[in-house]
Amino acid sequence: MPAGQQDLFPLDVPPWEMDAHSESTVAKIVFSEAPHGPYDYLIPDELFGQVVPGVRVHVPLGKGNREVLGYCIGVSTVKQSPDAFKPVLAVVDDQPLCTGRVLELIRWMSTYYLTPIGQIFETVIPAGVRSSAGVKQRLVMHPTAKAIDEQATGALTAKQQHVLKILVQAAGQALTTDELQKLAGCSTGPIQLLRDTGFIEARNERILERREYQPPQAAGPPLALSVDQRQALAHILEALNSRQQQTILLHGITGSGKTEVYMQAIHEVLSFGRQAIVLVPEISLTPQTRQRFLERFGQVAVLHSRMSPTERHFHWRRIVSGETPVVIGPRSAVFAPQPRLGLIVLDEEHDNSFKQDTLPRYHARDVALHRSMLEQIPLVLGSATPSLESWHRARLGQYRLATLPRRIHNRPLPVVNTVDLRLSSHKLGNGTISRPLYQAILETLAEKGQVILLLNRRGFSTAIQCPQCGHVVSCPDCDLPLTHHRDGHKAACHYCDYQIPTPPVCPKCSFDGIQYIGTGTQKLEVEVEHRFPRARIARMDSDTMRKPGSHERVLKQVRDGELDILLGTQMIAKGHDFPNVLLVGVINADTALHFPDFRASERTFQLITQVAGRTGRGEKAGRVLVQSFSPEHPAILAACKHDFIGFATDELAKREQYGYPPFGCMARVIMRGPDLAATESFAEVMVGRLKQAQKLAGIECRILGPAPPPLAKLRGNYRFHVMLQARTAEPLNRLLVRATSDLKPPKDILYVIDVDPQDTL
Ligand code: ADP
Ligand code: ZN
User: Fold this and answer.
1) Best label site of 74, 134, 423, 745, fewest CB within 10 Å?
2) Torsion angle, CA of 450/282/711/627, rounded to 10 degrees?
3) What is the CATH number of the domain that holds 193?
4) What angle do CA 506, 510, 516 make, to 5 degrees?
5) How far does residue 489's CA lie from ligand 2's centre (Å)?
6) 312 close to 303: Cβ distance less than 8 angstroms
7) Are both 604 and 494 inside the same structural domain?
8) Which residue range forms the structural domain that includes residue 51?
9) Which residues are near ligand 2, the ion (C-beta closer than 5 Å)?
10) Model confidence over 538-590: pLDDT tens digits?
11) What's the CA-to-centroid distance between 492 and ligand 2, angstroms?
């Protein structure tokens, strides 16, 4: 064979001598557990057309050919004999679990977050869908051809016609006799008659039990937009009409009417038969938000973390079929299987809850951006305090900036003042409420206004220390001070479940006079009750909000004027619209400032701005008092002046100096294990590999560590981390793949990779 032809015929047999059997149709299958694949499996003739990308299949795996469940991610024809492959044994789903574009998104996430595709599937497809939760064998009614034949139906009674009409309208949604009876408001009689006369056919089918059947509401009219809103909407509509991906950063101060802009943009999207996804932080997914969208669009799927698997499955099916054109939910709603997605909105885009802190550690903002690129649709990011990442991109022109600089009806922003806690004249007894704040609360209560007090620490006392020997009562598994909780008299670790009864004497030296120091929301509640005995008070933090519905109940009480003072953690800072809140007090603005994290200033600015935004939303003006030991800090000063742009400009200059995001990319590798020495030496191995890979591939980046992170021990495991920093994401990704692809940690030691970490604890 002449040289050069070898490449053309890589197989032993030239094509003209191949028979049909040396070609095989194979499916690429991945698994959620190791080995993750992908591996090729033969699609047998009888399963041809059923094994398509996005369905699950049963295949034999390993030497023993144990049968396992896998996901099909591709089908192709290869020039190899069928004997070379193991066969697909069975197909689980009769329809793909995701669209082709979402499959693309899954592949991208797998690469970007260095997570096997099979694991990403388990994140994207809810467990309730995978387990077919709520599917039961039922007798269901279908209209026959006769049912839409006017001549035939003309002879029926009005009642019978009504029943048929309901059934025809339900098109495709299988209804049981019970459901049909309820919807038509009739007895079994007319239904039975219609079955006997051949208008209705009853079939035994496996159907999804409906948890919640909501007939569509009548959709309400839009509001007349302000000039600013109109302009912001115009930007979004322009992007929609361009039929191309574009990201719009909607920077609108609190109360400027961002939600109305989203809703009118969505209205436009629906008008040409497409669908929308609205992502919000879980905590702001209140009945009020839900109601606003429901009233406008009639049909909305609201997804949240407390849904049962069956409810989730039910919504998923309806979304797939295009019946709920608007989906609202927290970060995982970015995967909602809308068949013809037209727009993604991400509200409060700076919010930390969009980052998942378990594997895969994805950020919904980045996933949304990628999905919008795959779908070629606009993405709207909205916030009063945009993340510096998004703000920077808007400044570079990568995102289009739309601004709502005024509140609706030109309501003024609240006046924000600081209270310098270093001044002794501001002190009021032993409490945490300063004299000026105390005065302001009194005045507000006198004029029948409501008060919000923010303290970002739950529990009663934040540390328990012996004044004699200095011993701090700590968690043996996490090495962190225990927080005293007054209810149940316990000392609890806020990072694990460790709890002990509060020690009456020092556990170390037995000194009788152990002290409880620092203030959490419980102690603040006691102080507030004591200072304002006639006020109606509620506390909102993750301890009081454990029961489903408790969050909503308290918010409703505030709205209905049944509460005078609401105090709590950052939970109370988000998104609520209470017209009668006239005073917001920040008990300690410094708590977030002292976190060992380059985003500490940004978080402080965001928190103060967001909580300040809860006041002055009604007719009366609002005011804010921010207590701090460092009121001259730039983040606090800027928040007091409502100066996002000033803050962002200063902070970006600092970030640029150190190459922190958005001027560079970061990744973090966390190693953990029960043995300190073994974990540390594995961390050294990790760094050695990273450095070697860096050298061999000539990758430009910084490798910092290994070092113990601020949480050096957690739930009985010692922890080490390595920080990686580079100008762009791509070299970091390459580096991590090279260094870890054949790495097996020793027994009991785990490592996780966090791409774009949002904290460094
Ligand atoms: P944001 O999301 O920017 O904080 P919202 O969308 O919650 O602001 O709007 C604040 C309030 O103003 C809401 O009660 C909303 O119904 C009202 N609102 C928004 N746009 C208009 C408008 N164009 N005309 C009248 N009221 C409006
Ligand atoms: Zn602990």
Assistant:
1) 423
2) -20
3) 1.10.10
4) 20
5) 17
6) yes
7) no
8) 5-96
9) 475, 477-478, 493, 495-496, 498
10) 999 888 777 777 888 888 899 999 999 999 998 888 767 788 999 999 999 98
11) 8
